[in-house]
Amino acid sequence: MFALDKETFKSEVLESSGYVLVDFWSDGCEPCKALMPDVEALAEQYEGKVKFAKLNTTKARRLAISQRVLGLPTIVLYKDGEKIDEVTKEDANKINISNMIQRNVE
To answer: 73: closest CA among 84, 83, 64, 81?
Structure first.
């Protein structure tokens, strides 16, 4: 799973072709930290189909806001640089993330 920052977000997500899933999280978000092992397991499951990345919004607040990430955790699926789907807050769990990927990718 690739760790994004302000410098790499554009090239790795917005200018990327294919599917990219971004896990927006922060240091102070306990639900985000609890969700991370599930997201990493999904990254292995969908390897080769979806590129998985994470962005710590503590260091990239403006970037998160520019992507309309207003609450955490937020998991966003991009295709060819465009946001196509997301799950947020209490809906952000392994089942809903997997369903979002299946709905859009498979």
So the answer is: 64
Domains by residue range for the chain, with CATH: 2-105 (3.40.30.10)
* Tens-binned pLDDT, residue by residue, of the chain (106 aa): 999 999 999 999 999 999 999 999 999 999 999 999 999 999 999 999 999 999 999 999 999 999 999 899 999 999 999 999 999 999 999 999 999 999 999 7
CB-count exposure of residue 39 (10 Å: 0-12, 13-18, 19+): buried
In whole angstroms, give the CA distance from residue 94 to residue 102. Answer: 12
Given the residues 32, 42, 77, 100, the one annotated as active site: 32
Catalytic, 74? Answer: no
- Does the active-site annotation cover 78? no
Q: Pick the catalytic residue: 4, 21, 29, 69?
A: 29
